[in-house]
Amino acid sequence: MSPADSDSGRSPSDDEKRFGASHFEAAAHHGLPPDPDAHLSEAERDALDKALLRRLDWKLIPWLCFLYLCSFLDRTNIGNAKIDGLQTDLKMTNGQYNASLTIFFVSYACFEPLTNVLLKRLRPSIFLPAIMIAWGIVMTTMGLVHNFQGLATARFFLGLTEAGLFPGVNYYLSCWYKRSEFGIRAAIFFSAAAVAGSFGGLLAAAIAKMRGIGGRPGWAWIFILEGLATVLVGIASYWMVHDFPDEAKFLSEADRARVIRRLKVDKQSSAEHEDFKMAYFWASVTDWKTYAFAIIYAGAVMPLYAFSLFLPTIISQLGYSSTRANLLSVPPYAAAAILTVLIGWIADRTRQRGLCNILVSFLGIAGFAMQLGSNAASVKYAGTFLGALGIYPCIANTITWASNNAEGTYKRGVTLGFVIGFGNLNGVVSSNIYRARDKPGYKLGHGVVMAYLVLFLLIGSISTHLALRGENRKRLAGKRDNRIVGLSEKDIDALGDKRPDFIYTL
C-alpha cells in the first residue's frame, strides 16, 4: 500500500494490487514544491498528514455545509409555502404555480456552467458571500409579492443568484482533497440538502404560525425570515470562506507546500494557479465523460427536485393537515442524510463509485414503484423513505465520480458546471409532472421519476462504469502511451486525465 493510501485509510484497488502502486505514482515527484517534512520519519509524516487533513476538514466543511443548507432551504421552501396557502392567496392556477417552479431551473441551469470560471477568477471568499447576499435579498422579496408575475420574477432571479453555490463548492473542495478523500466530504456537504428538507419542514411549520403578523400570511413569513437569515449568513461568509490552497490565508507556508504536494502525488494540479485558456473549455466539452456524467446526474437530480418540491403535497394527499404533512416530511430526509454520508465513505474506500450508484438506485426505483402500485397510505409513506434513500446518495456520489475523472484546474470546473447545469435543467421536468388533476395518485409524476431513475441513473451508471473499466485496461496495457511520445514533462502534465498513467475511478 502506498503512503497516499495509508493516509486516507483506503484499501488499494484491484488494479493497484496487480500492477503495483508505483504505476499510479509515476512522475509524482516531478514539479513538487520543497518537502518541509523530508527530515521526518514515515510515522511522523503520517501523523502530520492526518493532522493537516483534520484541520482542513474543520476549516472548510462545516461552514460550507451550512451554506448549502441555506441554499436548498431557500429553493425548496415554496413547496411548504404552497400547502400553507401560497397558491390560493396569489390566485394562481395550477399551471402558473408549476411555471413559477420551472422558471427557477431555467436561470439556474443556464448560469451554472459559467460560475466555476467566475469562482476561480474572483476567489471563493468574494464570490460565494456575494451570491448569498444577492439570493437572500431575492428570497426576502418573495414574501412581498402579490401575484404570479411577481413570484415568477423573484424565482427567476433566485435561480440566477443561487447558480454558483453547488457546482462552486464541489469544485472548490476537489481542489483541496485527494480523489480518494473527496467523496465523503462531498457527501457530508450534500447531506445538508437532506437536512434542509428535514429542517425545512419543521421550520415552515413553526414560521407559518406567524400568519397575520404585519398583515402578511404565514407563507410570506417563511420567505421573509429565511431570506433575511441568508443575507446575514452571506455577510459572515466573507470571513468564514477561505480561498484556494495557493492563496488561503489560514495556511502556513509549510502547510501550503504539504497540501500542494499531496495533491500532485494524486496527479492533481488543481491547487495551483492556472491562467484560463479556451483550450480548457474545449477539453471539457469534447470529452465524452462530460456528457455521460451529465446524463447520470440528470437521472438523480430530476427525481431529487420532484421529491423535494412535492413531498409535502404528496403527504398531505394521504389525509394529513398542512402542519402534520410538513412534520411527516422530516424522517425520510433524515434517513437520506445518513445513507448519503455512508455511501460517500464506502465509495472512497472502494473507489467503486459506479457500483455504488447502481446499487443505491434500486432503492429509489423500489420506492416509486410503491407509490405507483399501492393506494395504502402506509405503503406510500414507506415508499417516500426508499425514494429519498435511492436519490440523495447518488447526487453527491455522481459529482465526486465526475470530479475524480476530470483533471486540470479549469477543465474540472467547466465539467462540473456543465454536468450540474444540464442536470438542473431537468428541474423543468420535475416542476411540471405533479399536476393537480392527477391527485391523489400522481401516476404521471411517479412514472416519469421512475423512468429517469431507470434509464438515466441506473443504465447510465452501468454504461459509464463499463466504458471507464475498458479504458483503464487499455492504459494499463500501454495502448495509450503513444500520447506522450516526444512530450516534455510539462506537456504531459497538461494532458490531465488523458495522460496514459491517469487511472479512472470506476
From TrEMBL:
Pfam name, any one: MFS_1
Key word Transcription present: no
Main localization category: membrane
Any single GO CC term annotated in Swiss-Prot or TrEMBL for this entry: membrane
Domain of life: Eukaryota
Keyword annotations of the record: Membrane, Transmembrane, Transmembrane helix, Transport
Residue ranges occupied by any Major facilitator superfamily (MFS) profile domain in the UniProt entry: 60-472
Entry's localization field: Membrane
An example molecular function term from Gene Ontology annotations: transmembrane transporter activity
Membrane topology reported for the UniProt record: Multi-pass membrane protein
Transmembrane intervals: 98-119, 126-148, 154-174, 186-207, 219-241, 291-315, 327-347, 354-373, 379-402, 414-434, 446-468
Name used for this protein in its record: Major facilitator superfamily (MFS) profile domain-containing protein
Species annotation: Cryomyces minteri
